[in-house]
Design goal:
Helix content is about 30%, strand content about 25%. By secondary structure, it is α/β, with parallel strands linked by helices. It has a single domain (about 25-185), classed as Vaccinia Virus protein VP39 (Rossmann fold). The protein starts with about 25 loop residues before the first helix and ends with a strand.
């Protein structure tokens, strides 16, 4: 069972997505990811966007660790329902509405986002079979909405090669954890 690892809601169990349509981020990978983000000092007071959110476990972890706002974007019905349950749980612990759920396709969400909306941290865990081209399209739609010192983390299969990042992005780190690889990007 997945849980919130640290912060104000540390230890709280999370609702998972029934079935095998999603691939949850393991606690080991999640702990490594958030240790790195904590080291970068980018979470406290940040506006966080969790794309292809699945159960929303990455986004609610960010909220527990001090993010100001978190937007979970998930299209699949079962996954969006898990996002709502986990958002409700963290919002209750925090005593405020910090986490919002958007049941919509990622591309639609980004196309409809007001021009002045900006995020400081973006967590992307697209389905592993997603080809590089649609991933680059999502990143291109995201680019105008990144804060100056934003960090974008893309989770992919460790069997996948490094995508050719679109113009406006620069990879500054990457790390492999078994079947998972995390790519860390920043605005160029």
């Amino acid at each position: 069972m997945s849980r919130i690892i640290a912060g104000a809601a540390g230890g709280i169990p999370l609702t998972g997505v029934p079935g095998q349509m999603t691939r949850p981020t393991t606690d080991r990978v999640k702990e490594a990811l958030f240790s790195r983000l904590d080291a970068y000092n980018v979470l406290t007071g940040a506006h966080v966007l969790d794309l292809f959110a699945g159960s929303g476990s990455l986004g609610v972890e960010a909220a527990s660790r001090g993010a100001a706002t978190v937007d979970l974007v998930e299209f699949a019905d079962r996954a969006a329902a898990a996002c709502r349950a986990n958002a409700d749980a963290i919002n209750q612990v925090l005593g405020r509405t910090c986490v919002r759920v958007h049941r919509v396709k990622v591309e639609t969400f980004l196309n409809r986002t007001p021009e002045d909306a900006q995020w400081d941290v973006v967590l992307m865990d697209p389905p592993y079979p997603m080809e590089d081209e649609p991933l680059m399209e999502v990143l291109s739609l995201l680019a105008p909405h990144l804060g100056e010192d934003a960090v974008v983390v893309v989770e992919r299969s460790s069997r996948s090669g490094e995508p050719g990042w679109p113009e406006g992005f620069e990879r500054f780190a990457e790390k492999k954890y078994g079947e998972t690889r995390l790519w860390y990007l920043e605005p160029a």
